[in-house]
Amino acid sequence: MKKELRRQIIQARLDLSPEAAAEKSETIIQKLISLPAYQEAGTIMTYVAFNQEVETKGLIKYSLSQRKRVLVPVTVKKDRELIPSEVFHFPGDLQPGTWGILEPKPECFRPVSPSEIDMVVVPGVAFDKNGNRLGYGGGFYDRFLGKLPKTSRFVAIAFELQIKDNVYHQEHDQPVHWVITEEQVIKAK
To answer: How far, in Å, CA of 11 to CA of 20, rounded?
Structure first.
């Protein structure tokens, strides 16, 4: 069931026109930066969009302009882990990494302790209104989010088409505090 739901949602996301995806992404990012939790956060980790996910370029650039510390994940495939790395120059610090997703160049790798992260902007395939997420199946974010301080806040950004009644979550899955789409802000926990 999870595999089929992943396939359906990813295809629906890819079926959005680039213009529609860009417009929806901009609306979602505006809602995110209006959140008091975002405004209060000094250190933010965000994914770098790939494969028609909600676009994060604007968020990264805006956050840097607001003098926030911006971190992006470096994927260590063999250990199935994410390492947060600080970005000073976007997109100049980055190059295609694991799965073709932009990651810091080796000379720009600046690891940061997870204990310093105030907010994580989390990717995913599907979400429910309780903040449960269906990821891509590797468990990278579930393991990573489980290591963060209780004070860290997790925000999923997604297109409305990614909101489902059931995402078949399991006990080890880490829920998010908010899910933000172009149509709504869901306070989940």
So the answer is: 15
Q: What is the pLDDT of residues 109-127, one digit of tens each?
A: 999 999 999 999 999 999 9
131 is in an annotated binding site: no
Q: How confident is the model at residue 138 (pLDDT cuts 50, 70, 90)?
A: confident
Q: Is 47 annotated as a binding residue?
A: no
Look up residue 129 and give its DSSP letter.
T
Task: Please tell me whether 100 is known to bind a ligand.
Answer: no
Q: State the Cα–Cα distance between residues 13 and 109, nearest whole angstrom.
A: 31
Question: Could you count the other beta carbons within 10 Å of the beta carbon of residue 21?
Answer: 19
Q: How far apart are CA 170 and CA 123, in angstroms?
A: 17
Q: What percent of the chain has pLDDT over 90?
A: 85
133 is in an annotated binding site: yes
Q: Is 138 annotated as a binding residue?
A: yes
Domains delineated in the chain:
2-187 (3.40.50.10420)
pTM of the predicted model over 0.90: yes
**Residue 131 pLDDT grade (very low, low, confident, very high; cuts 50, 70, 90):** very high
Structure tokens given for 119: 């907010």
